[in-house]
Amino acid sequence: MESTNPNLKKVVFPETALKHALVDFTGSKFEPEDGNVTVEMIIQALGEDFPELIWALAEENFFRGYEQALTDVRSVEAAMEE
Known about the structure:
The chain has about 80 residues and is mainly α. The chain folds into 2 domains: about 10-50, no CATH class; about 50-80.
């Protein structure tokens, strides 16, 4: 099952100081031809230069998803017992 997240292709506009820093850093790193920096490019840059952050976010997302799946299974089991 392959899916794509359209949010990854969104251009990031430097509306805050942090976004400005990330867009500048990523733009300098990858030098996109059209000058646009996307969410995907920022994630790639962070993955290369700050992997601890990406790992922490991925782990948190995994565990929350796993916990939600267990909650859903318990709900279905409880509904089937009624």
